[in-house]
Write a structure and sequence with these properties.
By secondary structure, this protein is of the alpha/beta class. Helices cover 31% and strands 27% of the residues. The structure holds S-adenosylmethionine.
């Protein structure tokens, strides 16, 4: 298939995803819908998976990890209620797809990934797409950002057994944290706001994520 035809098919698949899997469910934030339409998911999946880039499911990205399904990426982004003044901490860069979506809506994104090869792959894709408001680190994100810093929003893209204490300490008063929380093979997607130092939690839905492996996550 020639390049132009392949690109046309991907563009149509992206529009279908927007209509059926996002608008057709509960994604209503126009800014989230706009960036989900703008960011090419095919740029974040391995070559052999391009034709599946807009199927609403996770796909392998190497290192035994997956790129999250588009609906969950959109839902978590919507729950964060981002604006251009927000500094966002993301734990679990993975392919960088969610990072790119966040970066299009927030002022600055700080993202940590356990695997060096995923972090450097994500950095290259974001550079190619001209997305510059992102700082990358390799390490254990369950322990928080390595330099002293506070964040308006925090997103975990891997499941935690409970809220990691270092992350709560780095969340500003009035800030929002979103994470899959739970010890089973499925977890609860939870959105919480920090009010007077305490979290006001809302269970959004069930979900299935890989585990957050680290000092304040799972041991394996
Ligand atoms: N949102 C990503 C995307 O769009 O490609 C997918 C994230 S994937 C579901 C979860 C990621 O969390 C994996 O890349 C995994 O290596 C990473 N991870 C797991 N434990 C971690 C930790 N303690 N610190 C940083 N990253 C971690």
């Amino acid at each position: 298939m020639d390049r132009q035809r392949e690109q046309d098919m991907l563009d149509q698949a992206r529009q279908r995803m927007l209509r059926n899997d996002l608008q057709g469910r509960d994604i209503t934030d126009p800014d989230v819908l706009r960036v989900m339409m703008e960011v090419p998911r095919e740029a974040f999946v391995p070559d052999g998976y391009h034709s599946q880039a807009y199927v609403d499911g996770p796909l392998p990205i190497g290192s035994g990890q997956t790129i999250s399904q588009p609906y969950i990426v959109a839902l978590m982004t919507q729950l964060l209620r981002l604006d251009r003044d927000c500094a966002v901490l993301e734990i679990g860069t993975g392919s960088g797809y969610q990072t790119a979506i966040l970066a299009r809506l927030a002022g600055k994104v700080y993202t940590i990934e356990k695997f060096e090869e995923l972090s450097s792959g994500a950095r290259q894709v974001l550079e190619r797409l001209g997305i510059g408001n992102v700082e990358f680190r390799v390490g254990d994100g369950s322990a928080g950002w390595p330099e002293p810093r506070r964040f308006d929003r925090i997103l975990l893209t891997a499941a935690a057994p409970d809220w990691p204490a270092p992350l709560l300490a780095q969340l500003v008063e009035g800030g929002v944290i979103v994470a899959p929380v739970g010890c089973g093979s499925t977890q609860a997607l939870v959105a919480a706001e920090k009010v007077h130092g305490k979290l006001i939690e809302r269970h959004v839905c069930g979900c299935r994520f890989v585990r957050l492996i680290g000092e304040h996550g799972f041991s394996q």
